[in-house]
Amino acid sequence: MAIRAYEAASPSRTHKAKSERRSGNAAVKASSKSIREQARALDENYDIVTGLFDKLEERVVGPKGIGIEPLPLLKDGSVAAEFAAQIKSAWGEWSLRPEASGVLSRPEVERLIVRTWLRDGEALANFIAGNVPSYVHLTDVPFALELLEPDYMPLEDDDTKGVTQGVERNEWGRVKGYHIFKKHPADSITYKAETKFVNADDMIHIAIRKRIGQVRGISLLAPVLVRLADIKDYEESERVAARIAAALAFYIKKGDPGLYAPNTEADKQTGERTIPFGPGMVFDGLIPGEDVGTIESNRPSALLEGFRNAMIRAVAAGTRGSYSSIARDYNGTYSAQRQELVESQSGYEVLQNQFIDQYARRVYRRWLQVAIAAGKIAVPADVDKSTVFNAVYIGPVMPWIDPYKEANAWEKLVADGFATEAEVIRSRGGNIAELKKQRREEITENREHGLVFNSDAYHEHYSKGESDDKKKRSDSSGDGDDGDKQDE
Questions:
Q1: Do both 66 and 145 map to the same domain?
Q2: How many domains, in total, are found in the chain?
Q3: In a domain, 126, yes or no
Q4: CA distances from 246 to 240, 243, 294, 296, 460 (A)
Q5: 168 - beta bridge partners?
Q6: What pLDDT, in 10s, does the model give residues 176-225?
Q7: DSSP 3-state assignment of 247?
Q8: How many angstroms separate the CA atoms of 288 and 261, rounded?
Q9: DSSP 8-state secondary structure symbol assigned to residue 8
């Protein structure tokens, strides 16, 4: 059996064979609090980590938040354009103040949720719908979000109630609700930790889970936390060493003690003397037995940049990030940059889709449900009720490195029928309905004022058709045989 065993399973002098025997929940319970506090400290004090989370915010949510394009259908299968426009208008108005405190807009809320989720491992959002005692809604639709950090959810278990680290589940593992602290436990050391129960339908719990059956989340930085802390300490040491090296210092080497004697009254009193120093000076104030030397340093080390970049590449690999984006190092050929962008985009899309599934879709559907129930949005009779919540969710897309080449590629795909105009617009992060509306308005205005641009292919076609018609009429206007031949 020893011969058949995998070498990795057998500890040796060079292989310690560390193992994890705990369940996913037990591992998170023992580690999550310390890891998320370390991640927060690095986010607050280390520029590399701050830049990493900034870039993840930009690529998962973006500056405008997750775009939502309602797509309800009529009973004949066509898009209910007017109803969709009504929903989009109300959604845009609500997006100005969706959060309970009224401080943040929807894009700001989504970026903050993403940062908390990835840095701390999880984030919470409580739905406030309808009439709630002591709360006044700030929007026409009586719906708001209460954002909560994971600290609000205790890590203790209660097996008698089926509660695992603040999450209550049934015997099948389905979440029934959450036990939440009424106040942040770190706000006051004298506060009694009282909790309240929130139904699962009224709470969003978005988490990074890496084990089957894991209830709570773990920080995205967990695998690279030690490496990041080491890089930070090493950079700080090199920075201090460089500052010391930059401070030019001299020392006086004393030879035979018998030849040395204090030179001034100040030397006799303090044992120290100051030597003036200036550009191009000639100094002959040394006494017998003395020589002048300089304190030299080889800092910063020439190996610093290569070592630091290698460490950042490892951090990027462990966080679904991109080395170039984290290090802000964009050197390389077009092909190399394109390959890195394509590979890193897959990682961003995994996080983006997870955020849409666990957060954005649930918020939109609950908001629309409340808006309809409150009478703020009326569903037309000819709309298929089963499609009311249909929508397309649009996140940030992969940027174009060479817009000319990529625009030509999209143009060919559309012309050959392998892609649609909607795909092209969405690949640029646009909304097809809004773009079509703007195009209709500007083309109509251009035609009214006799303005012709290359973007209006109709004018070129129309002008060419009109010219051909005039030529045909001219050719057919002859007399005699020519006219008979034209008629034939």
A1: yes
A2: 3
A3: yes
A4: 10, 5, 12, 9, 69
A5: 163, 177
A6: 999 999 888 887 665 567 889 999 999 999 999 999 989 999 999 999 99
A7: coil
A8: 8
A9: G
